[in-house]
Amino acid sequence: MTPIGLLNIILTAFTFILFARVLISWFPDIDRYHPVVRFLYDVTDPVLEPVRDFMRRQGFNTGPIDFSPMIVLLIIIVIQRFLNAA
Protein backbone atom coordinates (compact mmCIF):
# COMPACT_ATOMS: atom_id res chain seq x y z
CA MET A 1 0.00 0.00 0.00
CA THR A 2 1.29 3.41 -0.91
CA PRO A 3 1.40 6.33 1.53
CA ILE A 4 -1.23 8.11 -0.56
CA GLY A 5 -3.50 5.06 -0.35
CA LEU A 6 -3.03 4.89 3.42
CA LEU A 7 -3.83 8.60 3.80
CA ASN A 8 -6.92 8.12 1.66
CA ILE A 9 -8.09 5.29 3.94
CA ILE A 10 -7.48 7.41 7.05
CA LEU A 11 -9.45 10.32 5.57
CA THR A 12 -12.31 8.01 4.61
CA ALA A 13 -12.39 6.52 8.13
CA PHE A 14 -12.41 10.01 9.62
CA THR A 15 -15.33 10.92 7.34
CA PHE A 16 -17.37 8.01 8.72
CA ILE A 17 -16.45 8.99 12.29
CA LEU A 18 -17.50 12.58 11.53
CA PHE A 19 -20.86 11.39 10.15
CA ALA A 20 -21.42 9.27 13.26
CA ARG A 21 -20.71 12.28 15.47
CA VAL A 22 -23.16 14.44 13.51
CA LEU A 23 -25.86 11.77 13.78
CA ILE A 24 -25.31 11.44 17.52
CA SER A 25 -25.68 15.20 17.94
CA TRP A 26 -29.25 14.94 16.62
CA PHE A 27 -30.29 12.77 19.58
CA PRO A 28 -30.09 14.75 22.83
CA ASP A 29 -30.97 11.74 25.02
CA ILE A 30 -27.79 9.83 24.13
CA ASP A 31 -25.36 9.50 27.03
CA ARG A 32 -22.48 11.87 26.20
CA TYR A 33 -20.22 9.95 28.58
CA HIS A 34 -20.64 6.58 26.89
CA PRO A 35 -17.19 5.36 25.73
CA VAL A 36 -18.20 5.22 22.06
CA VAL A 37 -19.62 8.74 22.14
CA ARG A 38 -16.54 10.00 24.00
CA PHE A 39 -14.35 8.38 21.32
CA LEU A 40 -16.26 10.14 18.53
CA TYR A 41 -15.94 13.50 20.27
CA ASP A 42 -12.29 12.97 21.21
CA VAL A 43 -11.36 12.13 17.62
CA THR A 44 -13.35 14.89 15.90
CA ASP A 45 -13.04 17.82 18.33
CA PRO A 46 -9.37 18.59 17.54
CA VAL A 47 -10.34 19.03 13.88
CA LEU A 48 -13.68 20.79 14.37
CA GLU A 49 -12.64 23.31 17.05
CA PRO A 50 -10.18 25.28 14.85
CA VAL A 51 -12.87 25.55 12.16
CA ARG A 52 -15.40 26.78 14.73
CA ASP A 53 -12.91 29.30 16.10
CA PHE A 54 -12.15 30.56 12.60
CA MET A 55 -15.85 30.96 11.84
CA ARG A 56 -16.42 32.88 15.09
CA ARG A 57 -13.48 35.19 14.37
CA GLN A 58 -14.87 35.88 10.90
CA GLY A 59 -18.26 36.78 12.36
CA PHE A 60 -20.18 33.71 11.20
CA ASN A 61 -22.63 33.31 14.06
CA THR A 62 -24.84 30.45 12.90
CA GLY A 63 -26.78 30.05 16.12
CA PRO A 64 -27.72 26.47 16.99
CA ILE A 65 -26.52 25.06 13.64
CA ASP A 66 -22.89 23.95 13.54
CA PHE A 67 -21.49 24.15 10.01
CA SER A 68 -17.98 23.08 10.98
CA PRO A 69 -18.53 19.37 10.12
CA MET A 70 -19.69 20.38 6.64
CA ILE A 71 -16.63 22.57 6.12
CA VAL A 72 -14.30 19.82 7.36
CA LEU A 73 -16.02 17.34 5.05
CA LEU A 74 -15.51 19.67 2.07
CA ILE A 75 -11.83 20.04 2.97
CA ILE A 76 -11.48 16.25 3.17
CA ILE A 77 -13.13 15.86 -0.25
CA VAL A 78 -10.75 18.40 -1.79
CA ILE A 79 -7.73 16.66 -0.23
CA GLN A 80 -8.91 13.25 -1.45
CA ARG A 81 -9.50 14.54 -4.97
CA PHE A 82 -6.02 16.04 -4.99
CA LEU A 83 -4.50 12.78 -3.70
CA ASN A 84 -6.37 10.66 -6.25
CA ALA A 85 -5.27 12.94 -9.08
CA ALA A 86 -1.61 12.58 -8.09
Characterise the protein shown here:
The protein has one domain (3-85). Helix content is 74%, strand content 0%. It contains three helices and no strands. The chain has helices spanning 3-25, 35-57, 68-85. Helix 1 packs across helix 2 and helix 2 crosses helix 3. The chain is flat. The mean pLDDT is 94.
Features:
86 residues; mainly alpha; 0% strand
Seen as an oligomer or otherwise, the chain set is: single chain
* Helix-strand string: HHH
Poorly predicted runs of 5 or more residues: none
- Helical content stands at over 70%
Figure out the total of helices: 3
Shape: flat
- Average of per-residue pLDDT values: 94
Question: What count of domains describes the coordinates?
Answer: 1
Structural class: mainly alpha
Question: Strand content of the residues, in percent?
Answer: under 5%
For the record, give the distance between the C-alpha atoms at the N and C termini, rounded to a whole number. 15 Å
| CA-based gyration radius | 15 Å
**DSSP E strands, number:** 0
- Report the major sheet: none
Q: Topology, pairings included?
A:
Layout: H1 3-25, H2 35-57, H3 68-85
Helix pairs in contact: 1-2, 1-3, 2-3
